[in-house]
Amino acid sequence: MIVRHSELRELLTDILDRREVEFSDVIADHFTEAELRGHSSHGVQRMIPLVKGVELGTIRRDLEFEVVKESNSSILIDGKHSVGISLWSLLIEREYDSPVTAIAVRNASHVGYLGYYTERLARKGKVAIMLGNAEPAVTRPGTSPAKVLSTTPFSVAIPSDPPVVLDMALSAIARGKIVEALRKGETIPHGVAVDPEGKVTTNPQRALEGALLPLGGEKGFYLMLTLELLVAFLTGSAVGPQVRGVLNTEHPPNKGEVMIIIDPKYFEANVDAVEYMKEVVGGLLPGEHGRKIREERLKSGIKLDEKLFSTLLSMRERVPYFK
Asked: What InterPro entries does the entry give (predicted)?
């Protein structure tokens, strides 16, 4: 079915308002923007675990956080189980005047897709690098299919017109894509996940019971491992199999995110490199595909499967939905 973006945003806002969730419009805008750009794995299907956490009390309705440490170029925040989207949306609106600023957050709920934040900073003229961890979903290739790492979300945005925005999981497939395939009754690509016996599978249910594979095999695994260690090291968050509360919101969130903001005025700001590589690769720089999808969906609407939309309608009418 096709839903207009304004209708979807209004529905999501209403669901959250009926549960007295603070900054409901910010959260609804994030999920709607994810759908507009084709990031359905981080779109409205994420409303379900969010609402569940709010109703169970593992995710706060209000935005509360603690500044644990702060300097003129760094800040460490404990999110106190607040909605991660609300917290990070607030953080990127601050003014950062240092050549390089580091932000570290722990114990906030799911933050959505990272490019939402990095692109907004790039449009303000800043370079932004963001990474995080989450519940384990990825196994080490060639071993037992034990889940030891998250999908290691990663985003980089570079100021240009329009900004270059890389936003990806470092697993061979995003876990949300598998959840989406399961809901739609579809298969997943070959070679991205294994079943509980360690055999490659295209069955999304078996993949969720098993584990995802890293992008780039063994090298990709160690890249992911190092980045997740960096997040835990800087934020004080849980790491690996200790992480909870992202998709399974019966538990409070204990994950972390790190963002590095660079002000190009203190460096070279070589925009010619962006234009040159745009010619070399034929104009397909990171972020272009999502912007084209957004333009199309603003005109034609957002395609949602009826089962998911029906669930959203039920969540609006039935409060609480999970208790």
From this structure: Mal/L-sulf/L-lact_DH-like_ah, Mal/L-sulf/L-lact_DH-like_NADP, Mal/L-sulfo/L-lacto_DH-like_sf, Malate/L-lactate_DH-like
CATH class of 1-56+287-322: mainly alpha
Write the pLDDT tens digit of every residue in 136-177: 999 999 877 899 999 999 999 999 999 999 999 999 998 888
pTM attached to this predicted model: 0.94
User: How much is the pLDDT for 24?
Assistant: 98
Domain extents for the chain?
A: 1-56+287-322, 62-171+214-286
CATH 3.90.226.10 is the classification of domain 62-171+214-286: no
pLDDT band at 88 (very low <50, low <70, confident <90, very high): very high
